[in-house]
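Appendix C reproduces, verbatim, an entry submitted by the partner laboratory led by Prof. M.T., so that reviewers can inspect both the input and the predicted structure.
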Amino acid sequence: MRKVEQAGFQKSLEIHFQAKTKQRGLTAVTNLEDEEDEAVSEATGVSVIMEPISESARAALVSYFLNPTIKQEQEEGPQAVCYSQPNQRRPTHTRHFLSGELLLLQDIFTKVPVRDTKYLRLLGKGQNRVTYELDGQRVLKLANSSHGSEAGVSRSFGTVTARVYWEGWITVGMYHNREFKNELFYGLVQERALPALGILPTMDAHEKAEFFWYLASVFTWIEARGVVLKDIGPSNVAVANRVPPLRVRLYDLQSWEFGQHRRSRGDEGFLRLVGQFSPEVLEQLRAVWNPLRLNYPARFLKCAENSPSYHSLLREHQCMSSKGTLSTYFNPD
C-alpha cells in the first residue's frame, strides 16, 4: 500500500472509531442478545442493533479497496471487508466480531470483482452463524465451520425448505488496531423467506388452526422419510407468501439428522409455537401427536383432515398422495 494512501485510509478509520468509542465504546454493545438466545434468528430479518458505519469511513473503504491500482497489488485479497466490531456481549469467536455491514469486493458466486459499491446489512445471528442481506431474495450466512446438514436437507426436501444456492469458504478482511487481518468463514447463500412469527398475528383463529395442522402434516412426512427433527422451533418456520394458504419455507436446519427412527424432543419448539398462538389447537394436536408418535400414516391422516385448504399444497410438496394418504417411499403413490 502506498504510504500516502495508507495514512489517509487509517486516519479516516481512526476518526470513525474515536467518535464511536467516545459515544459508547466498542465493547459496550449491551443491546444485543447472547448467542445462545434462540429468539435471535438467523434469517428471519430480526434486526440486530449495531453502530452504523459513518460516511467518511465508508468512503475510506471504497477508495482503498476498490482502487484499481491497489486491487492489482493484492494477489489474493479478501472477498469482503468489515470492521472488527463485537456483535454480542461475550465475543469468543471471529464471527462474534463481524460488524453491522460488510463491503462486498467480489461476487459471492463467481469471485469476480464487483463494479458498484455494495454493502451487506447484518440481519441477525443464531447459535453458530451470522446472517447478512445479500439482496431482496437471498441471505448470506457466515460461520466458523460447516453449516451442517442445511444444504443436504434443502436438496432432499426442496418443496418445503428455503433453497440453498451456494456454500463455500469466504475470506473477510477485518479492520482492527490500524490493520486488516484476513479471516476465513464458511459461507452459505440461502433463499430469504418471510418469518411466520410476523404473519401469524394477521390471521384469524381458523386460518391459524389450519396452518398449524398443515405444518404438522409436513413434519410427519419428513419424519417418515427417516429424519430426526432436532430444531423446528418458532425461528425455523418461514413462509413464501403473506395470504393463506401459506407455503412453508423451513430454514436453519443444520442440526437435522438422516437415517434414524427414534423419539426426538425436536418437536417441542413446534408445539411451543402452536401454544403461543392457538392454545386450543395445541391441546387437540397433542391428542393426536403423542398417541400416534411413530405411526406416521395414521398421524398424517389426522393432521391433513384438519387442514383441507392445504391439500393441494401438500400434494404439490409431494407429502400427500392422490388418494389423500401419506406419500413416501414407504407408501408410494
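Residues 22 and 41 are 30 Å apart (CA to CA). Additional entries are available on request from the coordinating office.
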